[in-house]
Amino acid sequence: MDLQKHPQQPDTTPRSTELRASDADRDRIVDLLHEAHAEGRLAADEHAERVEGVLTAKTLGELERFIQDLPAAHQRRAAPFSAPVRPATGVFPVDPDDTVVAVFSAAARKGRWRTGRRIHAYAVFGSVEIDLSEALFDHQQVMIKAFSVFGSVEIRVPENVSLRGTGGGVLGAFEVDPQDSPDDNAPVIYVDGWAILGSVEARPMRGKLVKDILDRVQRTVDRSMRKHLGH
């Protein structure tokens, strides 16, 4: 008996080179072009021409064409550390280490300040600014619970930490730009909460870096060990 053959359905899955490029993808290619120019592999005019093309590229395939003749394009890069979307249960204390409140006013935490594991921020007809770009991290994981009612909570973090967001908005905007640090010892910032007829925004700050991450984590571990052995 003859078997009826069914025509093969066309594969509509987009190839990886056809996927839309993100701003992070463009930044990565621009960094590689800067390195190639500094090494003398690209002349100044060729470097400028390629950077201009990268900034207008739409797909990953278009981006790769600008570095296909550079050694960096053929080097295997380690996969970046990916922080979990939600922290493990019991990682953070129930009560906050620091509370920032703005009611018909403005409040801020910025500059050189020491963060705890849990920070609460409340903006009611006011504005709260939390700037972690120069903060001292004694803990690798930090939770920020942000609540905005007819107000705004603005959170800024260094670009070499991991950032996660799990909140929501009710007739408001809750916006977190997630990012992964390539260093699995870097701090992980979790932003949670609600924006009710207001806004909560958390974004990385370009050019701002947490320095000596390994040293800071080690110092914290050493202090904990000394405290434990002292009892």
From TrEMBL:
It comes from the Bacteria. Residues 112-176 form the Cell wall-active antibiotics response LiaF-like C-terminal domain. It comes from Streptomyces prasinosporus. Transmembrane segments: none annotated. The lineage of its organism: Bacteria, Bacillati, Actinomycetota, Actinomycetes, Kitasatosporales. Residues 19-71 form the DUF1707 domain. InterPro entries: DUF1707_SHOCT-like, LiaF-like_C. Residues 1-24 are annotated as: Disordered. Residues 1-16 have a biased composition (Polar residues). This is DUF1707 domain-containing protein.
